[in-house]
Amino acid sequence: MSAITSIVPSRLRHLVEVSPRVRGTLTSGPIQILTVIAVFLVGRAAVPGFAAPYSVKAMLVIASFLGIAALGQTFVVLIGGIDLSVPALIGAGNVIGARLSGEGMNSVEVIAVVLATGLAVGAVNGFVTSRWHLPPLVVTLATGSVVGGAVLIWTNATLTGSAPGWLTRFTSAASSTGPLPVAPVVVLWLALAVLAQLFILRSRPGRQIFMLGANRQAAALMLVSERTISALCFGLSGALAGLAGFLLAGFTGAGLFTVGDPYLFQSIAAVVIGGTSLLGGRGGVFRSVLGSLTLVELTTLLVGQSLSSAAQQAVLGAVIVCVTALYGRDRNVRDRI
Amino acid sequence: MDRLAHLPAALRRSPLTVVLALVVLLLAVNLWLSPTMLSGHQLPNTVNLLVPSVLVAMASVPAVMSGRGGIDLSVGPLLGFVNVVLVGVLVPHSLGSVWLSLPLMLGIGAVTGLVNGIAIAYGRLQPVVVTLGSYLVLSGLALVVMPQPVGVVPHWVSYLSGAWLGGYLPRSLLLVVGALAIWRVLRHRGAVGTILATGSDDRAAFASGVRVSRVLCLAYASGGVFAALAGIGLSVLIGSGDPTVGRQYALAAVAAVALGGNPLIGGRGTMVGPMLGATSLFLIQTMLSSLKVSSLWIQVVYGAVLLAAVCANATLTTRLSARAKVGMA
Amino acid sequence: MINSEIPDAILETADPGALVPNTPPAIVEVRGLSKRFGATRALVDGSLSVAPGEVVALLGENGSGKSTLVKLLSGVLSPDDGQILVQGAAVRLRSPRAALAAGIVTVFQEILAARDRSVLDNLWLGHGSPVLSRSAVSDRRRLASQAWLGLSGQDVDLDRPLGELTLMEQQICVVVRALLREPKLLVLDESTSTLDVELRDRMFDQVRRRAADGMGCLFISHRMDEVMAIADRFVALRTGQVVGVRRRGEADARELIRLISGRDVESGARRVGTLAHGSSAVRLEGVSLRPGTKPFSATVSRGEIVGLAGLEGHGQDELIRCLAGLQVPHAGQVYVAGPKGRADEEPAAVTTYRGGVARGVVYVPRDRKVEGMADVLPIIDNYSMPTLQRDRFAGVLSPRRTKSRFQRDARTVNFTPGRQDSIGRLSGGNQQKVIIARWLAAEPRVILLNDPTRGVDLKTKHELYEVFRGLADAGAAVVMLSSEVDELVHLMDRVLVFHDGSLSAELAGDAVTPESLVSAYFGSPAVAAGGH
Predict the structure, then answer these.
(1) Interchain pair C117, B267: CB under 8 A
(2) pLDDT the model gives residue C265
(3) What's the pTM?
(4) For C451-511, where are the alpha helices, taking DSSP H only?
(5) Which chains have at least 3 CB atom pairs separated by less than 8 Å from chain A?
(6) Does domain B39-318 have CATH number 2.40.50?
(7) Three-state DSSP class for C296?
């Protein structure tokens, strides 16, 4: 078995690595795009109605919530971290958004509050991890626990508030954006992805993110401030998670603190399936867009197979590992000597 | 003998200092709040509650030690899965006797860990991804095997929930003793040292003739065995099968490892530290519940203590290593 | 289970006709070994043999196939073609484990060690039986400390984590580890680069003593003086092929260099700066590097190249880090001239790294892989990172600007960008050029180079010397730490020699000779102390 796995993927990886320029500009290997298409074709063949316009629109909406959270997670993973506070912040964004809107606050102000909360918590994550050189996994686990608990106390663990009316239309799969036949939330997601891509390719802090993720010590000698960049990446992750939570309120109607729970592993899985290395320094934002699409397609496919949710989960777990095996493999220890 | 001579130095630079202090402090507070906690009457219940957390923390240790982002997120669901298989499969098929079910369960743990290890070592996949995958697979399978909490545990498991010596020696401690014995054998055979060396620099280990891939498999497999023991501990605790409870342990185990002073980048660490870490997390919970704090607060306090402890740990160790560097110059 | 002693080597029947009568069987013989990576032929039909008691030097520039041969011999790579014979029997070395079992022990160029583990654990890493009795453990301790003492002449705390030791001690550790394995063939790949002169000589003694007992040694170094000092036979490689074999005494250094490079390389001739030494760029006042060491003062002027030298760990490394602002001296101050370099500007103290860079003090670190670059990232990122703000146009980076900047600076350091994308795939010398080019954009006035030619082949080394001289001629003050005597003699206008944490001698011009340097290394009073 090991003989087969060691031959095939190295060839595939070669395919990806042949075209550094393509990778540099698109920051996504052709394999990821092919995966999205392949899973779609399998879905169309296996599940009736999978490729129907309404179904595709619905998938895109679901992917956009995940995708926005995954964009944030990507920044953190690029510096070699991981953000486990994402579900708590999605929950917080959801509850704060619904509750403040329910109390009649102006939506712009609500969004500002949500973004500021996420940014602040994220910045704390970034500061603490870089100041004391702590593992992000533990730090974000802890802050996530604190934020999640605080939201729980605030809402007394019940459904609370209500989403503003426009948000329901904004996130409805049936609505369209001007001439585009997709929900506004999808357009927002893709716009954010383009902005994020521009940011990492064409701004100084964006390039510094890669250097920090690839080699911390060398980055310090190249005048990259670890604290600033860490705070920035975790801050963006927090803000985007909060935003995703707020948008989810349009979907759920009211604020519920547990709404973020599935996103803990999904946001990481989307980044990894997209092909961004958890070791840092390698990957990109568009990859996570593709990763989110693949993940949502897979979930829909499994639902369509009328599997129980438990069985779906089991199959999804196996599929995530197999998909990553296509291109997310580390270098052999022999090649590192 | 040699180790004794080095004890003072070892203590000074020990990463255990913080967690040990934390456990002592929390224990004192707990005893002050509820003096009967360690009485023969209450001790077995307390220990039964504690045992799965300690074992699942132990289960996370080898993977973290083995380095290159090593982590095993699947130990939580694995313990739930073992519990469900015991109650939902083995008992109905009258395979519940200790001589049949114990090896079978440990085997499930070892094989699950081995599969993770093979995917990581030979498939060269990132540990977070692999164990996240098996996390989903195991928690899904647990629900497939047993959709609702149901069933009874075999006799030998309920026997373990009792205690000897008038309650002062809870029998569930046998599971922890068993895990420690396995770890001791591994240490004595040099396997722990090899896991740590691989975690510290796998290229150095490989170039020196260590079979790195096998070492990784061993690390994950031993973690799986500990998780299976934790599953038995869970069965002792709840006395039935529950497909969802295992997952709660997954992240707490990582927290316990970090609290115990083991660096998550691997290459260093102890087994005692994470055990103490799990104990202190448990004591926080008991403290809050005897303070009649709303259960909603537990999560907040949990996170805050974890954050404070790892920060304290980090400041302490950097100061120590700074001192070591000055001494060197 | 992990350590069981089953060698992975599969013995094949030896070709009986291969044994030529009347010659002692080689310890290790390599026949027609070939290896290719994609389209690159890294080693073509490589053949060589090492007899018992023989030290064979493997010579070649970077990319000549040396490291490929080493990796094949150590089991890291498998050959596409050809045979490796150990004492006449063909072996297949599938893994380092198999190579070690066959008696071929390699000390790799990079120090491969588990830095979290104790010295003792590192010395016996991957070695021996799994279950150790108490007496076996104490045997190991005794053997380990004996071997360490034998090589370094010093005792070591076997229980200390290796990472707390100096780079040189870590290097000693990997060499001792190899010796403890009782090798039939010892492969030393650039294993002297972090050792100082004294330790290197001790290591050579050890190798000779082992060789007298029948061990073979394959020795690889870019330093001609070392090679000439130890080797019985020289094998030269060029572009993956063996281009010549010479016995000791058959060829001098010049001839060997010609063999390696395929042409004459001008060496030995000193080239002194063309710029009359300008105003002072760096001033050290009453600097004391460690508690209790003698304070000293010194200056470095624009246009000169000043070497920092000494035995490893005698203070030169601390000084260069103090100059860079990475470390603060125990007492005293480091002053740097103002940004314009004019006399009327106030010199300022350097206390932080960023502050230093802002004043035009740039630093090229010692360990490229750890501190110098991110090997997974493109060359262009590794070049542009600290000066990216220059490429901003309306707040957005312009890759075209970066590229044109890079082309200009690459020309200055004599680097020709090839098809490679990531810096990790370049040779050590070219990596170093990119790292130096990185700082040219910061308009450096003081260039600090921490042993920049380590692991760089001779040809590239001389190219780098030209670059350094060019930078000095353009008005920069160049301070360069070097552990190589030849380099100090060849390149430096002045050399500051350190002993026991303080400046012990200052040699200038023609006073920089191998003899004067080495005696100053040992703090010999025969040389007039230059400290004030």
Answers:
(1) yes
(2) 52
(3) 0.83
(4) 458-473, 485-491
(5) B, C
(6) no
(7) strand
